[in-house]
Please model this.
Amino acid sequence: MKAAILVVYTCIYKYSLPAMQTFEFTQGSAPLLVSLPHSGLELPAELLVDMTDVAYELADTDWHVEKLYDFAGELGASVIRPKASRYVIDLNRPPDNAELYPGANGTELCPTSTFADEPLYKEGRQPSAADIEQRLQSWWQPYHQQLQAELQRIKSVHGCAILFEAHSIRSLVPRLFEGRLPDLNIGTASGNSCARTMLSAVEALLSDQQHYSCVFNQRFKGGYITRAYGDPGQGVHAIQLELSQRLYMEEELPFTYLPEQAAQLQPLLRHILERLIQWGLEEAQTS
Model:
């Protein structure tokens, strides 16, 4: 299994690297940008020689979120997702590697271990400061430049812009949190990354459903992207949803997508995006 993954990802990256197409982007017509920064699967061949076998599994990927949100384009949302794995560089971490949750276990800008504390690199082969700088320029900056440009474009068209950060994670990760993660984890930087009325609209929608547990601004308050780009005073509103992966997939290798379970979850995800778009259009009319 691991050998097969190595061959596939090495070949994919080998032929995509020369064009430096580091992300996929589709522009929409609605006041909403959906970002999936941890959905990438590619690993550069030059990194693989330094990495351990466990890295090939890509266990900490936000698996299949592009499938869960495959309706976003139909709603008119713009969508951006990277090609490279978060093991290359974490697009949802600050470029200076500052801690997002001081005092709590976290992860790095260029991860050197998995969520299970397994080393990603062979002894003495961890990325150097120069390596990290190169990855910032090659992968991190292009993604963020596109994020910024699209949010500015959306705001110029609609008068406001909404950024929806789509994430998922295993329901049990002792390194990061105790116990089982709630099903839906909404983060808005403790209410600072979006208008209160927008958050209230999402709260009301989720309170009407009884199938999934939901919490707001607890363990996951929103990562760097939510915190850096959410600026409601300037008409840019950001919100993050961290899904428990047990809702729609097998959480162990081979991380199989479960279509029947996903089909139960997708209508709620669609309602959330629809409500955000509706809020944005109403906000544009009143501003």
About this structure: The first strand starts at residue 23 and ends at 26.
